[in-house]
Amino acid sequence: MLKKIPKILSPELVRILMEMGHGDELVLADANFPGHSLHSRVLRYDGMGISELLDGILELLPLDYYAEHQAAFMSVVEGDPTVPVIWSEYKTIIAKHDIAATIGYEERFDFYNRSRQSFAIVVTGEEALYGNVILKKGVIKP
């Protein structure tokens, strides 16, 4: 055990966060996300929702202020009546760790393509529709 590392973060996830460089992206994916067909580096957190994991990750991960948006959500597919209420929870968690962070929205297939280019995908047990998040790693400023 180490001090100050959220217990929810596995050693493998902490290693990935440390290996990521400035501008690398991490995908937090819901249970419906096709993570394994999009990427070779996939971590499984099947019994976990994204909110608690997001909170733990943002204890360690600086966000990228050289980017237009520091996080991205998957947009609702046109014609789908779903209202992703989980987004307000995610926004609250992100603001808790970084009040200036902004969020962009990616069309479903653009989100998938961006996920292919990510550093890693964390597939969770999150059941909220459109519960996917991309985080862009920044730098720690002195």
Order of helices and strands: HEHEHEHEHEE
- The helix content, as a percent range, equals 25-40%
| Strand order in the sheet with the most strands | 2-5-1-6-3-4
Rg (CA only): 14 Å
Mean pLDDT: 96
Structural class: alpha/beta
Question: β content, as a range?
Answer: 15-25%
**Shape assignment:** globular
The end-to-end span amounts to: 27 Å
Continuous helix count:
5
Instruction: Please provide the count of β strands.
Output: 6
Largest sheet: 6 strands, mixed
The oligomeric state of the chains shown is single chain
In terms of per-residue confidence, which ranges show pLDDT below 50 for 5 or more consecutive residues?
Answer: none
Word description of this protein:
- The structure is a single chain.
- Helix content is about 30%, strand content about 20%.
- With about 140 residues, it is of the alpha/beta class.
- Strands 2-5-1-6-3-4 form a 6-stranded mixed β-sheet.
- β3, α4 and β4 form a beta-alpha-beta unit.
- α3 packs parallel to α4.
- It is globular, with a radius of gyration of 14 Å.
